[in-house]
Amino acid sequence: MSLRDAPRTEVAAAVIERPDGSFLMACRPEGKAYAGWWEFPGGKVEAGETAREALVRELEEELGIAVTGAYPWISRCYDYPHAQVNLRFFRVTGWQGEPQPHEGQQLAWTHASRPEVEPILPANGPILRGLSLPLVYAISDAENLGVDIFLKRLDERLAAGLRLVQLREKAMPSRDFEALARAVAERCRAAGAQLLINGDIELARALGVGVHLGSKQWLELKQRPELSWVGASCHDAGELARAVELGADLAVLSPVLPTASHPGAPTLGWPRFAELVAHSPIPVFALGGLAENDLDLARRHGAHGVALKGWAWR
């Protein structure tokens, strides 16, 4: 049987995170394939194990730590010359003990925005981009708040640490929307936050920011817009797959729960949400009927974080 015909090796990989945003990487020791390359700790899922069980076992064997808190995150398939792997990533936020190199590997704490280690295994490199995304994605609500109040609330949230914003005002005249976009872009840039403009690729390009596209736009596009960040709104498995195919950096999957704006509309619910994102190679935010205190619940179901509209500005 050729390598191409062989089943993929399931691997549990750990993003072990400290409160300051740093995470642990390990350097593969001599004698292993890709010796000297850096990777996220973890190992192969054995027969009869779940990915989480493998994660707990591997981190105890490799690092001598006992996992007390871990969220399922993204999955990434990669074909090495010697193996085809499916990496199931977990974000490990709680553990007992201090990580120690039990298998001769080097260890280093690093950051997504400025990784201090190299080279990083090819399958692991793109994960850093996802780790640079905040856990809360705030969607504008100037239509209900009024522009002046919205900008005031935006200033307050940016000062409090908000770092990811989508400007979405469907009912606003284009001239007013452009003026608001310039004001929001200036504020986000000064705060070091990422801004994604909903729907308008050319305006996003003119402002030097990202774009967030609806599912209809994704279905019509032939390739990913050449912008710093591209987000996608999705509602089912097909739309999520299309966003991945076209190279979106993140997706928003909705509606998870009932919302006041769409009473009686069908919802995904948490079990279906978890099923849809279980194998996603890009971070997926949960949207619909959620508040910021739902973040832990969303992450336990595989979400990268939560996307909020009304609750974002309270």
From TrEMBL:
Highest rank taxon of the organism: Bacteria
GO molecular function ontology, one term from the record: metal ion binding
EC number annotated for this UniProt entry: 3.6.1.55
Family: Belongs to the Nudix hydrolase family.
GO BP term, pick one: DNA replication
Alphabetical list of InterPro entries matching this protein: Aldolase_TIM, MutT-like, Nudix_hydrolase, NUDIX_hydrolase-like_dom_sf, NUDIX_hydrolase_CS, NUDIX_hydrolase_dom, ThiamineP_synth_sf, ThiamineP_synth_TenI
Species classification: Bacteria, Pseudomonadati, Pseudomonadota, Betaproteobacteria, Nitrosomonadales
Species in which this protein is naturally found: Sulfuritortus calidifontis
Protein name: 8-oxo-dGTP diphosphatase
